[in-house]
Design a protein that fits this description.
This protein is α+β, with helices and mostly antiparallel strands. It has four helices and eight strands.
Length: 138
Amino acid sequence: MAENKTQRTTASVAAFLAAITDRQRQRDAKALAALMRKATGEKPAMWGESIVGYGTTTYQGSRGRTVDWFPVGFSPRKTALVIYLMGGLKANASLLSALGPHKVGGGCLYLPRFEEVDTKVLTRLIKRSRDANRRVTR
């Protein structure tokens, strides 16, 4: 199996979230972390230096490379919370229309303001991504 550039680490998720300097982004990240933990039933883990992932799955990329990754995760970036949902965006267009302000790019969902998002809709998106990737989770 080829190694992915971003690997699961043993770094503390709590310390990572506590180190976010923008107070609003920190509150949003902590709220999202709690929502993802509840929706996935998984403990969070750091992937690289700035991604919080939930669960582990193995998938084959478009170039045939097999890598370990997480079915659901997020990164608190400066301008938005970036949510990673494996294979869950195009198939859930109807849910996205009810989510609230967001942008989509590749497999990422960008949330500029967490408080403006319908968390019930977001929870459904997270659970669908988790469930779609559960069959390959190890």
